[in-house]
Structures are given as C-alpha cells and as structure tokens.
Amino acid sequence: MILPFELLRLADTIIDSLDQDSESHYLTEDSLLKLHNVFPDTILLAALDLIDQRKVTESTTPWGFIEYEVLGSNATHIVYITLPKALTTSYCTCPAFNFAVLETGQSLMCKHVLATRLAVRLDLCVKQQISLDYLATVASQRYK
Ligand SMILES: [Zn+2]
C-alpha cells in the first residue's frame, strides 16, 4: 500500500515529468493519462479548465518573490507550490484544501494547486510584475 505522503510525492514527480506538445503547448495524450492515474477526473478537469480560462496568475515582486493566485468562482485563492518538502509541498487558501486535503486527507491537492502546478509546468500562467509603487501603497495602508 502506498502511504498518502508517498502518493503526493508520486503526483509531484508525475507533474514534474509531464511532456508538452511542441506545437499546441498543451499536454500530450500520454501525460494526460499519467495524470488520470493519480487525480480524480473532477479535480483534473476543473484544473485544466482554470488553465484554459487563464485564471492562474504568477506575480513577481521587484525582489523576485513569486506568488500565485487562482481566480475561483467566488474568490481569488492564493496558492503556494514551493513549500519546503515537509508533509505537504503546497497550500491553497480555499475551503476545499482545508477540508479535503488537510482535515480528511481525501485529496492530494485542490484544483487550484493542481492548476497552478500544471500552468507553471506548461508555462501557461498569466504573468505580471508587481510594481514597487503598488507595494508601497499596500504597505502604507496596512501599517499606518
Ligand atoms: Zn484551492
């Protein structure tokens, strides 16, 4: 039997080894099949849909910190995908991650994390540079 932690490693490794079709920049059939083996259809299709609709944003600060945001139907979720390899390597602020991943262990990751991992792998994130002026404004509102 594979432990949940090992299953997550397997999923991470599969995502890191996915192949991209050189013309369509999309996943090859073989890569999609591999994903089907570790993720339920509902999460996989929802994640691919988020990528199709360009809802995964990669924001970079002037000092090079990268943050990912996924625009959900009701809210925007912050996604972390490069956490130190402890029990989990990713985190999302959505309720599904809290319940299905952290509390009950029903899922390896939520659709937002999967979408972000795939979008990064496929270079399909919407990229934006956060300006120093913008950050200074946010900081001054928070700390004054
Ligand atoms: Zn999520």
TrEMBL record:
<protein>
    <recommendedName>
        <fullName>SWIM-type domain-containing protein</fullName>
    </recommendedName>
</protein>
<dbReference type="GO" id="GO:0000724">
    <property type="term" value="P:double-strand break repair via homologous recombination"/>
</dbReference>
<keyword id="KW-0863">Zinc-finger</keyword>
<dbReference type="Pfam" id="PF04434">
    <property type="entry name" value="SWIM"/>
</dbReference>
<keyword id="KW-0862">Zinc</keyword>
<dbReference type="GO" id="GO:0097196">
    <property type="term" value="C:Shu complex"/>
</dbReference>
<keyword id="KW-0479">Metal-binding</keyword>
<feature type="domain" description="SWIM-type">
    <location>
        <begin position="77"/>
        <end position="121"/>
    </location>
</feature>
<dbReference type="GO" id="GO:0008270">
    <property type="term" value="F:zinc ion binding"/>
</dbReference>
<dbReference type="InterPro" id="IPR007527">
    <property type="entry name" value="Znf_SWIM"/>
</dbReference>
